Amino acid sequence: MKKFPAIVAITAMALTFAAPSFAQGYYAGPIVVMPDHSMSAKSMFGAPIYNEQHEKIGTLENIMVKASATEPMAVLSVGDYLGSGPKMVAVPLSHLQLQGKDAMMMAGATKAMLKELPSSVGSGN
Fold first, then answer.
1. What are the sequence ranges of the domains in the chain?
2. In this predicted model, what pLDDT tens digit does every residue of 42-93 receive, in sequence order?
């Protein structure tokens, strides 16, 4: 799978949706990919995240962008945490790759590994 030509494309896409009035959408079907390989962040929200063994390891809930030129972070829901609802963790957006037209893939990840990450603060939840 080809990677984006530069992190600039991902940052520009994410900054488009960084307004304070940002409203979280819900996954409603295929991820929208343009001919230049840019993706609609809105179409990715709620998309399932799989590893290379085709095990579902989470769901993309949000994309967080800082005001400085740093890499956007993908906020993933990785299941219940001690019975208190879904645990949200942040990983660099570049760690996710489009898998077909309906899902994302995070190579080398497991659900257990993601659950060990600290909870994401400011995930919007």
1. 7-116
2. 878 888 999 999 999 999 999 988 888 788 999 999 987 666 678 899 999 9
Closest CA to 46 of 25, 65, 21, 68: 25
DSSP 39: B
Helices (H), 2-61: 7-16, 41-44
CATH architecture, domain 7-116:
Roll (2.30)
d(CA 39, CA 62): 14
Residue 56: what pLDDT? 92
The candidate with the shortest Cα–Cα distance to 91, out of 48, 62, 124, 67, is: 62
